[in-house]
Design brief:
This protein has 480 residues and is mostly beta strands. The chain has two helices and 31 strands. A hairpin with a 6-residue loop joins strand 7 and strand 8. The longest helix is centred in the N-terminal third of the chain and has 9 residues. It is globular and about 60 Å long. The structure holds fe (ii) ion (FE2). Fe (ii) ion binds next to strand 31.
């Protein structure tokens, strides 16, 4: 019998769960509004087997997708592992074969050259399939109803590179999936390919460009006419560094940052780079065009926010980790190389920003964030019209996760709906899903869905209304 190492990433609420579940009609306190009809999908990194290295980073675990299906005031739960090539190879072997995060030189030689994808960072529906995404690999498709894995997914042979970001956006005007892949000519290459996937699931445009330097290109923002790339120095160790045992990434507290602005459906050489002093950002709230200007809203900190990727050879320095929603404005008509304006949009310290996704790429009013204040976790609602931020603070024992907006109806006004937010109660060691009125979160949850097991904390997720929660009819990769 194998056992997981006694390290923080496998302790307490972060202990492996590994449960593929089907639970009908979950117990609810409060009342689930009957108008809610659809599915909240989320994905966690939940190691199938103990890792080969006890000091690896947490997000090297296998993708385990959960679906909370809301219908007629009831909620059911289904969870399934993504049956990646790697998952199936390890299951056949009965142990971990793949080594450290993005370090193929630490793998068992029997899997040399095999796809290392674990599809564990985000899930969203597009062109009828549920895409499980991780930025170092192509997508993996799942059936939106059964969560069975259909297989690796290259948009019918049209994916232009070897990777696809976990933070692809859906353009609410066109229905296109707007994505990109970085390290697109191999690990540590500066090459990025941006692409647009039609609602029919084929890439209809792509453009290649190079980053100013290689870094973790985790997220992007889209406007009606542009795609924006924040470039911050979460630098690569390089092949020699990996072979010497360094982590894949490390923070550089000196190097300048950039915002790249590329016309959508443009050429790669049309990208415009704006620069600013060293600072940190990872997740993007939204962006929009404003005449000649692009407004780009992202969560910014003075220093590194990633304890798992400190400066190479140094301990993590948390002193600059207070992160706040910030608007970077750049002027496309100006010849200036810097940002035109920087505005802190809320004093709330928070990350994992989300919007009413019908307003992605557009001027918007409402945003939600996961907050951190000492040991207490919070949900924050930022109202950009009133300038107010309202906050709900979780009970001491409940680390909470990324919020997700559910519209009251497809034609409801912006922000009219609910926020779903999962948490794990560290006293009961069971998970819960809270529902809030989206613009009255300080009043607390209107309903709490009780999960009779502990789900591993997820990274990202998305909402799909019932009309999109349909079977594909495609054969599953392997029955489970
Ligand atoms: Fe992310």
């Amino acid at each position: 019998m194998s056992s997981f190492p006694d390290v923080p990433m496998f302790a307490g609420v972060n202990a492996p769960s590994r449960i593929e579940a089907d639970v009908n009609d979950l117990e609810v306190s409060g009342e689930i509004p009957r108008e809610i009809d659809g599915a909240f999908y989320r994905v966690a990194a939940d190691h199938q087997f103990p890792p080969r290295f006890r000091d690896d980073v947490p997000f090297n675990g296998d993708g385990l997708v959960s679906m909370f299906r809301f219908h007629h005031g009831q909620v059911s739960l289904k969870s399934r592992y993504v049956k990646t090539d790697r998952f199936l190879a390890e299951r056949a072997a009965g142990r971990a074969l793949f080594g450290r995060y993005r370090n193929k030189w630490t793998d068992d030689p029997q899997v040399a050259g095999m796809n290392r994808n674990i599809a564990n960072t985000n899930v969203l529906i597009h062109h009828g399939v549920l895409l499980a995404l991780r930025e170092d690999s192509p997508p993996v498709a799942l059936d939106p109803v059964t969560l069975e894995t259909l297989g690796n997914w290259d948009f019918h042979g049209t994916l232009p590179g070897p990777t696809c970001s976990a933070h692809c956006k859906i353009d609410p005007r066109t229905g296109n999936l707007v994505g990109f892949g970085y390290a697109a000519k191999g690990d540590f290459s500066r090459d990025v390919v941006y692409f647009e996937v039609s609602p029919q699931g084929r890439v209809i445009h792509s453009a290649w460009f190079e980053l100013p330097y290689f870094e973790m290109q985790h997220d992007c923002g889209i406007t009606e006419h542009h795609i924006c790339f924040p470039v911050v120095p979460i630098m690569g160790a390089g092949e020699a560094g990996l072979k010497a045992g360094l982590a894949f990434y490390g923070w550089d507290p000196q190097r300048e940052i950039y915002l790249g602005v590329l016309p959508r459906f443009g050429r790669g050489d049309q990208i415009r780079w704006f620069t600013a002093p060293n600072q940190f950002t990872s997740h993007v709230m939204n962006a929009h065009d404003d005449g000649d200007r692009v407004r780009f809203d992202t969560c910014v900190a003075a220093g590194n926010l990633f304890p798992f990727f400190p400066e190479f050879g140094k301990p993590f320095d948390p002193s600059g980790a207070a992160v706040r929603l910030t608007r970077w404005s750049v002027n496309l008509e100006s010849r200036a190389s810097g940002f035109e304006e920087v505005e802190t949009l809320s004093s709330f310290i928070g990350e994992f920003p989300r919007t009413d996704d019908r307003y992605q790429s557009r001027p918007y009013r409402h945003g939600w964030l996961l907050g951190f204040t000492g040991a207490r976790n919070q949900l924050g609602h930022v109202d950009l019209k009133s300038g107010e931020t309202e906050v709900w603070t979780a009970p001491q024992t409940c680390p909470v996760l990324e919020p997700c907006f559910i519209p009251r109806a497809s034609d409801a006004p912006e922000g009219d709906g609910w926020i779903a937010q999962a948490l794990t109660n560290s006293e009961t060691m069971l998970s819960e899903l809270n529902l809030f009125e989206a613009t009255r979160i300080a009043a607390g949850p209107i309903a709490t869905v009780k999960v009779p097991l502990r789900l591993k904390p997820a990274y990202h997720g998305s909402w799909a209304e019932a009309a999109r929660v349909k079977p594909t009819g495609l054969p599953a990769r392997e029955a489970t």
